[in-house]
Amino acid sequence: AIAEVDLGTRTHRNRPLVELAPMAEVVAGTILSRAGVIGPVAQRPPLMGRI
């Protein structure tokens, strides 16, 4: 089972999240591909409107 929790605000000391998002998408895509998930995956809106 997978649970979702709100961990609060995450910051990266060298780059803003906007710059980290493309790499996060590549990492997530690789994980899903290796798990056998094929095709596009619907995205949910950010928690509490945060990105």
* C-alpha geometry: extended
Instruction: Quote the distance from N terminus to C terminus.
Output: 24 Å
Mean pLDDT score: 81
The profile of the biggest β sheet is:
none
Low-confidence stretches: none
Helix content: 25-40%
Number of helices: 1
DSSP, total strands? 0
Please write the string of helix (H) and strand (E) elements: H
Beta-sheet strand percentage?
under 5%
Estimated radius of gyration:
13 Å
Structural class: mainly alpha
Keywords:
extended; 35% helix; 51 residues
Structure description:
The chain has 51 residues and is mainly α. It contains 1 helix and no strands. The chain is extended and about 35 Å long. The two termini are 24 Å apart. This is Glucosyl-3-phosphoglycerate synthase. InterPro entries: Nucleotide-diphossugar_trans. It comes from Corynebacterium urealyticum.
Could you give a short description of this structure?
This protein has one helix and no strands. The chain is an all-alpha fold and 51 residues long.
